[in-house]
Design brief:
Helices cover 41% and strands 23% of the residues. By secondary structure, the chain is an alpha/beta fold. Strands 3, 4, 5, 6, 9, 10 and 11 form a seven-stranded mixed β-sheet that branches. Strands 1-2 form a two-stranded antiparallel sheet. A two-stranded parallel ribbon has the order 7-8.
Length: 288
């Protein structure tokens, strides 16, 4: 006998996991808190296993963790198929903010998949430093923003965690110089406070080589061995070196890649883009 999952129940399950509670999830899927609770109970009854631990803070069980990734993929496929088959997919405009270092690395294939699936949506991409993107979102200038935040301080929905690393030219020597030449993309870079704090605690003198909002120019200064920089480990270009603690540089903290959504009710296009980003980026990449 064929068995199948109810897409509506899976959508509610993912919303509860994403928002960390029944009430917030209800607002996201336009259901009452009691209706959300009933749907989760139905889904749990259908598989015969609890999906959440219900104590002071709602947490996924092992079964819930196992289901979440597959549920995201199933919902994404369902939405893409529906749009393709009916021509009734989202349309309009979505304004998305993305940090400079993630535009051409993690987000490029995700955005391509979205625009291919929803050709009637115009995506306006704004690149910037994470604090600037968060401010633009709060001011209503963006619909969604992917931001980098220190672990433990995230105000958005944490999608992945990666370690911040020092980066230098292949076989370079800039890291040996005093004061240490450091190239950062922008003065408001989310990494800057953590980097300067680490250098200060280590008693290391430093100087700024380049800060003007261009990720390509920052990479060029590093490739020329004029400076070192800091990036998330998963975004480091293959032709540059990740500098280990053996070089004498201080250890840096991990950062979260999180999704922040604008206040108020989101358009169908924005909701679809948020689901798409969660489905492909929401896979923790914490380095060992």
């Amino acid at each position: 006998m064929a068995r199948h999952f109810d897409i509506g129940l899976l959508r509610t399950f993912v919303a509860v996991a994403d928002h960390g509670g029944m009430t917030a999830a209800g607002k996201a899927v336009h259901l009452t808190q009691s209706a959300v609770s009933q749907q989760i109970a139905r889904l749990e009854a259908s598989i015969g296993r609890p999906l959440f631990v219900r104590d002071r803070q709602l947490r996924l069980t092992a079964a819930g963790e196992q289901m979440l990734g597959k549920a995201r993929r199933l919902l994404r496929l369902n939405d893409e198929m529906w749009a393709e088959m009916t021509g009734a997919g989202p349309e309009g405009r979505v304004r998305l903010g993305v940090p400079y270092d993630l535009v051409g690395t993690l987000l490029a294939p995700i955005l391509k998949g979205y625009v291919d699936a929803f050709p009637r949506v115009d995506v306006s991409l704004v690149a910037g430093a994470s604090p600037d993107l968060a401010a633009a979102l709060a001011d209503g200038e963006l619909d969604l923003a992917v931001v980098e935040e220190a672990v433990g301080t995230t105000r958005g929905e944490c999608l992945a965690v990666d370690r911040l690393v020092w980066v230098g030219a292949r076989g370079g020597s800039a890291y040996r110089k005093t004061p240490l030449p450091v190239s950062m993309v922008a003065p408001t870079c989310a990494f800057r406070p953590a980097v300067l704090a680490a250098l200060g605690e280590d008693g290391r003198e430093w100087r700024t080589v380049f800060e003007n909002g261009s990720i390509d120019a920052t990479a060029a200064t590093v490739r020329a061995d004029m400076a070192v920089t800091t990036w998330l480990a998963g975004t480091v270009p293959v032709d540059l070196d990740i500098l280990s603690v053996e070089t004498g540089l201080p250890e840096l903290p991990s950062f979260a890649i999180s999704l922040q959504v604008g206040a108020g009710r989101q358009s169908t296009a924005a909701e679809a883009l948020a689901r798409h980003i969660r489905g492909l980026l929401g896979r923790p990449r914490q380095a060992a």
